[in-house]
């Protein structure tokens, strides 16, 4: 064990403290201090000091790592809700398709048509158009449209299905384009059904061709809506 010794040095009372600070010890005093205050520095001691000085860094927390916690935003939640409710949104399209198929079967299978049969055909076609043909709208629907209320069911379907898409989104633009084609098909079909004598075979065939074209437009429109809903 190393012993540290101290030697008491008497200081004359006449000496001021300031003079002690500037007082230079004699050589024999320096030798005595070095002899009585031995300080030994070893390589192991330096290594230990280096280790201790590095210790704080060992306890520093590691930098936080960014990670994705996988929480869906409101837009993702709304998209999933639209998918779940898609059958309700697509129901009017299916109903219109059923009406068109019924008209096609009626015109294909009957040879004699009464006025009532013609009225039934016109009624089913009007219903299938879902208030999207301007001249087929009744007075109440026309009044609603004049106040800015959207009355075309197919237009409402597009707005709902594409509500989460941007205005320039190609999927939305394609759905809107197919909507225009569908409305145009219904307009031509209904005009033909009202103005053509379906008792004449050639005229009836024109109506049948128009029904087929409208069903095709309806199928494409439905595909556009499903693309908007990602189903």
Work out the radius of gyration: 47 Å
Give the mean pLDDT: 77
In the predicted model, the low-confidence regions spanning at least 5 consecutive residues are 1-25, 27-71
The name of the CATH architecture of the domain at 84-229 is: Up-down Bundle
Roughly how much helix do the residues carry, as a percent range? 55-70%
* % residues in beta strands: under 5%
Order of helices and strands: HHHHHHHHHH
Number of strands: 0
Main beta-sheet strand count, sense and barrel state = none
CATH class of the domain at 84-229: Mainly Alpha
Distance from N terminus to C terminus (CA atoms, Å) equals: 85 Å
Overall structural class, as computed from helix and strand content, comes to mainly alpha
Q: Could you tell me the CATH topology label of the domain at 84-229.
A: A middle domain of Talin 1
GO cellular component, one term: chloroplast
Structural overview:
This protein is about 65% helix and about 0% strand. It is mainly α and about 230 residues long. It has a domain at about 85-230: A middle domain of Talin 1 (Up-down Bundle), CATH 1.20.1420. α5 runs antiparallel to α6, α5 (about 85-110) runs antiparallel to α8 and α6 runs antiparallel to α9.
